[in-house]
Design a protein that fits this description.
Layout: E1 5-13, H1 22-35, E2 39-48, H2 59-71, E3 76-79, H3 85-95, E4 100-103, H4 104-115, H5 119-133, H6 137-144, H7 151-155, H8 175-205, E5 210-215, H9 221-229, E6 246-251, E7 257-262, H10 272-277, H11 279-286, E8 290-296, H12 302-315, E9 323-328, H13 336-342, E10 350-351, H14 360-373, E11 375-383, H15 387-396, E12 398-404, E13 408-416, H16 420-423, H17 428-435
Parallel strand pairs: 1-2, 1-3, 3-4, 5-7, 5-8, 8-9, 9-10
Antiparallel strand pairs: 6-7, 11-13, 12-13
Helix pairs in contact: 1-4, 4-5, 5-8, 8-11
């Protein structure tokens, strides 16, 4: 099938903090477009103090891009920012009927629609699509009516990038029916969420620590999971190759064991509604005992990608979990120590090549030390009704002092780092730091 030709448009907003430069962000957008099956034929950007209320970019720039796109026979123009319904209307009118307009969010949603394999993943993508399309109903539905529903849309046999919708006869669907659909999807996802919570509760009762792989998309998380656990997770040199979480058991030296989970990769400008839709999946991260933050050290924007992941972890309230930074793909790097000197944030990182099994033994030793050998001082006041936590401290912690009060027990001592999150809300030292 002939690939659609895409022209990319970026905006460099003055005095706006950003993870990547506009040039690097457009390069990332090109990778996203390629992953979605498009052929990128060119790009351009404009520096602005704020978006144009009607056409996002300046009217003169719109005409300039229109002329270039027509001369290059572009089928689609992709903006590297999220567009409002009005922006879509004005831009489509300006560019004409022969050129389609989508934004970065639409593109990412399309890639997720292509890669979702499990029922949970498909539900989450479908919810994000409907919530994103609802305010853009007038603009989007005439396009979506040209596509086949369900599996045909996902397989790419009908329609194109930005046209893969949730899969109903779109012209017959109005806002009320879409809201009803969103309500049903949220209900289905809540059932999945409750199932995951029960699964995690059973997991915690087994006292096997949970370690989760996080990182920027295409950093090598799935490759590392396959290396450590001999799993057979799909690996490809493209963005968002892995969407659905995968958990495998890993045996460490000395008889210790853990559960290792691979998760969807992060990316800058990750759509808000996508984060919300994938809340059930992302809770896997929030409930971890240890995070392994994989960084593609060979990438020119490695430090920016590292910071972007930290921002997302903060957004989903998982930034308090102990974390090991792992610099991956060192087989492609000439001087890893120079990189560590250049970026102090990486000074304590473990260096590996997941593909070539370099540094894996050192990584396993570091994981074992963090989970089973590192103890953190803590002072907690726990209500008696939380007897499981009190027993957990007695079994795995080291108690220096214990004081029984009315309805509570105050314990001072140290616990393994992997259990820190369990006691976080009862941590007196943390509460005192927060109020300072």
């Amino acid at each position: 099938m002939k690939k659609e030709r895409a022209f990319l448009v970026g905006v460099d907003f003055e005095q706006q903090s950003k993870v990547l430069s506009v040039e690097d962000s457009l390069e990332e957008l090109a990778l996203l477009a390629t992953t979605a099956g498009l052929k990128v034929i060119g790009s351009d950007f404009q520096r602005l103090s704020k978006p144009n209320p009607s056409t996002f970019i300046g009217s003169g720039k719109v005409q300039e891009i229109k002329a270039v796109s027509e001369s290059l026979h572009a089928d689609i123009i992709i903006f590297d920012e999220e567009l409002s319904p009005r922006h879509f209307r004005e831009l489509e009118e300006a560019f004409g009927q022969n050129i389609r307009v989508i934004d970065r969010t639409t593109l990412i949603l399309d890639i997720f629609a292509q890669h979702a394999q499990t029922r949970e993943g498909k539900l989450q993508v479908e919810l994000a699509q409907y919530e994103y399309l609802l305010p853009r109903l007038t603009r989007a539905w005439t396009h979506l009516a040209r596509q086949a529903g369900g599996g045909a849309g996902r397989s790419g046999s009908v329609g194109g990038v930005g046209l893969r919708g949730p899969g109903e006869t779109q012209l017959e669907v109005d806002r009320r029916k879409i809201r009803e659909k969103i309500t049903r999807l949220k209900s289905d996802i809540e059932k999945v969420r409750q199932h995951r919570q029960r699964y995690r509760a059973n997991r915690k009762r087994s006292l096997i620590p949970v370690v989760t792989l996080v990182g920027y998309t295409n950093a090598g998380k799935s490759t590392l999971l396959n290396n450590l656990t001999h799993a057979d997770v799909y690996v490809a040199d493209q963005l968002f190759a892995t969407l659905d979480p995968t958990t495998r058991r890993l045996e460490l030296a000395g008889g210790n064991a853990l559960l290792l989970t691979d998760t969807v990769g992060f990316i800058q400008k990750l759509p808000t509604n996508l984060v919300a839709a994938f809340r059930a999946t992302l809770e896997e991260i929030s409930d971890s005992d240890l995070l392994l933050h994989i960084v593609d050290v060979n990438h020119p924007n490695a430090i920016q990608q590292w910071r972007s992941v930290l921002d997302t972890l903060q957004e989903i309230e998982a930034d308090h979990i102990p974390m090991i930074t792992i610099l991956n793909k060192i087989d492609k790097t000439e001087d890893i120590e120079e990189i560590k000197k250049q970026y102090p944030e990486f000074s304590n990182a473990v260096t590996i090549s997941a593909k070539n099994s370099i540094g894996i033994d050192q990584l396993l030793l570091r994981i074992k030390r963090e989970l089973f050998e590192t103890f953190i001082p803590i002072s907690v006041t726990i209500p008696y009704k939380n007897g499981t936590l009190i027993s957990l401290f007695h079994e795995f912690g080291k108690i220096d002092h214990i004081e029984n009060n009315v309805g509570t027990v105050k314990i001072t001592g140290s616990i393994p780092g992997r259990l820190l999150a369990e006691f976080e809300k009862f941590n007196q030292q943390q509460k005192s730091r927060d109020t300072e």
